[in-house]
């Protein structure tokens, strides 16, 4: 079963220089001179601001309260450990060429036939077709960078804390057990993402709605309430990677969600697809859960870059799911996998930008303001891509 949360979660070159160190080191771990890095890590551990924002789940109520009030604010230690020591995955993608619709509040849908989109591919078929395999342990983060060095997606990983892996198992079992107890309608098990049960929960705007509202889950309400109240699922969904890898994009989300607050009553193999109603330049957080061998199945397929990525259970990947074609490789027989995704509909951003009005209401009440907004739509996609960060930008703070 796939559970999708549409409530926002506040939640290279072969040689490169380690800032603060006197020498140039290789990204090949076997050739790493680790001494100066260890020394720097010790220095950071001795500072008062040494809490790792990506492992904040283990730091108690006070830290959680700070995040709820101020949002995630990556520390110098976080940037050092997770950004500077990461190995980027270079691609030839030009992020600005991704298929956004005019206005950049939604994306263009795939034009391929259902037969083409719904074909399932094995790992062997993908590799024989020229796809690049990215081996990944699911722990250490790896940014995906485009031809200009912009980070458009991130293999965010997971905290080193062993309790996080335990929570991933508990989350998987809770979702699986809930699915086994539930009868799903045909429309909930066969859709453009694949042939498996999928439910969305949270706030949504679009398809003719006059205002942002909570999705009505009907007979599934109690089940989804139980899932979202599960403490392990709460922990798994709080990884602070968004603010670390795309701080300006994160603030764009945060600003819109803060304005919106108080104004609303609030085993699977996916087909190749776009989540075209999500914010085109926004990131969707995908958490893989289950019991499977990630070297044999469960890989994330990114069609635009012909990349197939190992995706171990308990790990999180952030991608612009609205504009990047993606799917995944099926797991092996007697294995199972579920996913928990977090995203925000682009229509919510449009609703906030229109001062909490529909397009028709905006035009009728403020024609000049409406025309100005229409002009901004012509450049909004470029503005959105401009919110992506580069490695140099992120490392400039340490």
- Rounded to an integer in angstroms, the radius of gyration calculated over CA atoms is 21 Å
Number of strands: 16
Count of DSSP H/I helices: 15
**Unreliable stretches covering 5 or more consecutive residues:** 3-42, 48-53
Structural class: alpha/beta
Give an account of the 3D structure.
This protein is α/β, with parallel strands linked by helices and 398 residues long. A hairpin with a 4-residue loop joins strand 12 and strand 13. Helix 11 crosses helix 12 and helix 13 packs across helix 14. The protein starts with a strand and ends with a helix. The N terminus is likely disordered.
Key phrases:
15 helices, 4-stranded mixed beta sheet, alpha/beta, 34% helix, 398 residues, 16% strand, globular
Summarize the structure.
Helices cover 34% and strands 16% of the residues. With 398 residues, it is an alpha/beta fold.
What is the topology?
Elements: E1 2-5, E2 15-17, E3 24-26, H1 35-45, H2 60-70, H3 76-84, E4 89-90, H4 114-117, H5 123-128, E5 132-134, E6 142-145, E7 151-157, H6 162-180, H7 186-189, E8 198-201, E9 203-204, E10 213-214, H8 221-229, H9 231-236, H10 241-245, H11 247-260, E11 284-291, E12 300-302, E13 307-309, E14 316-319, E15 326-328, E16 336-342, H12 346-353, H13 359-365, H14 367-385, H15 391-395
Parallel strand pairs: 1-8, 1-16, 4-6, 5-13
Antiparallel strand pairs: 2-3, 6-7, 7-14, 9-10, 11-14, 11-16, 12-13, 12-15
Helix pairs in contact: 11-12, 13-14
